[in-house]
Amino acid sequence: MPPAPHSRDAAIAIAQGAIEDGTFFDALARLVAIPSDSTAADAAPHLIRYLDAITVKLDVLGFSSEQVSDPETGMPFLIAERIEDPELLTILSYGHGDTVPGMEGLWDAGRDPWQLTEAGGLWYGRGVADNKGQHLINLSALAAVISARGGRSGLNIKLIIEMGEEAGSPGLARICGRFRDRLAADLLLASDGPRLSADRPTLFLGARGGYTVKLGIRRRIGGRHSGNFGGAIANPGVELANALATIVDANGHLKIEAWKPGQIPEAARAALKGLTPAGGEVDADWGEPGLTPAERVHAWSSAEILAFTCGTPEQPVNAIPPDAFAWLQLRYVTGVDPEGILPALRDHLDAHGFAHVELEPTGAAFRASQTPADHPAVQVAAGSLALTNGQAPVVLPSLGGSLPNDIFTDILGLPTIWVPHSYPGCSQHAPNEHLPADLIHDALAVMTGLVWNLGATEKSSLLPAY
């Protein structure tokens, strides 16, 4: 029996129908075909071309759009809005159209990363999961609701698309500050990152912060013979290994108290109860004592050694190396002072006899941010996903990885809800990036139902003071 016209079920049927008749595949294929690797030397025209393609889609939906650029980096952005009534709930959404490099020649079966292909129920192509497919799902859901409601969504929708997320979102904070009034909204609703598992709809409410430090010990110029000098002079590799061991012990226990939040809110602890993170790839006894693996990933801090070099690993010789370097990354949650991360590390190393270890922050840094798990908007979103999918969604206080979510919470002052449409095995930064067709089909239903429900929700009941 077909769903009643102008109903939630009708909107979902419209959205999923685009999978069945091939129009969604074709639309995604056109986006994937744009080689929008933001790290490439010739990226600029492709980034603009991608925003042009999204603008065409938004024009059809009745958005007004403008491309703007960050004056310091030249990075392009798209800002758009569709206002039905100033008194309605206003949603800001976000996506990024840039990707990591295509890694041509490394994909199975000779696949071209810039050509969308299907095999065995999986859709392959660069950006399918991160993030072209995800924001296309959201735009398709909005289009389905507008169609089912006879030209209205019941919401005001604003959108910002950036083209530099994979390069650390250069300029995003400045653009959001510059256009704060145009981006003003009641709630951020966006999609990025993975579900907890392919078959389990997920919400996450923020993201862990990320901060990377290069640690170095420089003892002398040139190596020294390991036999003639061994036992008489300091080995920077041994020194640095011992310095690192004071930061994280042999069981992954973080030893710098200022890098930890102190406690996990009860609402967050309840949301994580019974969950297994990281696609089930867990070492149960690793990390902070007394916490579950899910709490360690989604509600606590972790420090990871990303790289460690001394000497010539590619061709070891009988020499004590003159220097040693390590790259240490802290992933942290709200409750940790981002301005205190580096001073706390300096104090810790000095107190343990490693004042000679040099510290240099490196790479992009993201601040931790999080919307409370008991926020009314979270309850509405979780109820909508459960209604569509027939099971309660996973609610994660923070994504284990880092996103520029802090820009939306801190600069724009918004509560944030992310509904990811990927899964842990998607190979998003590797060859063979893909999404299962069944997941896309489900995500279209989940997001359409959520947009429908938000459009039927009184703003005053959804958004108390935040």
Quick rundown:
The chain is of the alpha+beta class. Helices cover 31% and strands 20% of the residues.
Give keywords.
6-stranded mixed β-sheet, Aminopeptidase, alpha+beta, 466 residues, 31% helix, Alpha-Beta Plaits, 2 domains, 4-stranded antiparallel β-sheet
N→C terminal distance? 43 Å
In terms of structural class, how would the helical and strand content be classed? alpha+beta
Helicity level, as a percent range? 25-40%
The poorly predicted ranges are none
Question: What percent of residues are in strands?
Answer: 15-25%
Outline:
globular
Count of β-strands: 19
Annotation field: number of helices? 13
CATH fold-level name of the largest domain: Aminopeptidase
CATH class of the largest domain: Alpha Beta
Number of domains: 2
Rg is: 24 Å
Round the mean pLDDT to the nearest integer and report it: 95
Indicate the CATH architecture of the largest domain: 3-Layer(aba) Sandwich
Largest sheet: number of strands, sense, barrel closure: 6 strands, mixed
**Widest sheet: strand ordering:** 1-2-6-3-7-18
3D structure, described in words:
There is one protein chain. By secondary structure, the protein is an alpha+beta fold. It folds into two domains: 8-207 and 368-462, 3-Layer(aba) Sandwich (Aminopeptidase); 209-261 and 301-366, Alpha-Beta Plaits, CATH 3.30.70. It has 13 helices and 19 strands. The strands form six sheets. A six-stranded mixed beta sheet has the order 1-2-6-3-7-18, with helices on both faces. Strands 12-14-10-15 form a four-stranded antiparallel beta sheet, with helices on one face. Helix 1 (8-20) runs antiparallel to helix 12 and helix 2 packs antiparallel against helix 4. The two termini are 43 Å apart. The model has no long low-confidence stretch (mean pLDDT 95).
